Amino acid sequence: LHLSIRRQRQMCIRDRDKIQTYWKESFLELVQLCKIKKDEKIIVLTETISREINFQLLETALKQANLAFTHIDIPTKPYKLEPIIKSTGASNILDGENQYISKLKKSDIIFDLSKEGLMHSKQTKEILSNGTRIMNISDEHPEILSRLKPEKKLKNLVKDAVSKCRNASYMRITSDAGTDLKINMKKTNTVGVWGWTDRPGTLAHWPGGLVVSFPNSSCVNGRLVFQSGDINLTFKKYFDTEVIFDIENDFITKISGNGSDKKLIEKYLNSFGDKNAYATSHVGWGLNNKSRYEALTMYDKSDLNGTELRALSGCFLYSIGANEFANRYTDGHFDLPMMDCTIYLDDEMVVNKGEVI
Length: 357
Hints:
By secondary structure, the chain is of the alpha+beta class. Helix content is 25%, strand content 27%.
């Protein structure tokens, strides 16, 4: 049955998606950077709505590297909620799948090709704590992935930013539009993603190139003022109108604005009926110079997940929803890259009006 489904998916690949050589090279580069040993157990995790062409490219790369793998393909699960769930980083495909979780925990590396990704899934912490590493390949068209193929120089850039965050007492974000947000960094967990993982118990995603901090309880206070041109990655659109978030002890307490963006965000969050949908997930900034601001205008919505815009160099990334470090889980989620912000760590300016120092 699984083979039959896979053949059907292969037949559905469009002519313009026929595999290109440079796509193969990018996937092979990823596999090589993960430094997988011959005796390590590899699992490729997909679901029935995973992007088939990315599976084919990964399969080709692993074979070219002479690495054997096990393929686990799980039927996609519907969400039991009325809101439309997109780009959460918290896939539900492992819910109730203890037999598969057990197999994943016994592997050395998982290539995650699930539609929403396992970054914030409830089972991820358990899998990582067993020493397994997870390599998430974001649900992007391979053209996007190949344009943002992993680069070694990103690693040092990201590691330096992580070190600065971990040594800071607070982060402050300001803008000419009126943004003024402060985060207690003494009670946060900071991670960096440069696009691949070669260490046990770690998770990475491709595309990479960003630093994110997950605040624990009562760490985030202030105001965010979104302007036309900022980005809503859950809706895969640029802001057209001003929206203001007032934030107290991690939670959005008030949403202001007079345009369609405010209405869309407010109605979407209200539909979850979940306080945690209003909570801060993570904060950080992008460091990938190859990420393009105009990307949302250049691809169909079905062709991109938006990870590129999360890593956009100099953007301030504010996200609400699941935060496993604060033990908050929810299906409500927004990734909201903001342009032209200034970011301070203590008294050191690290981003000046959208430009990385």
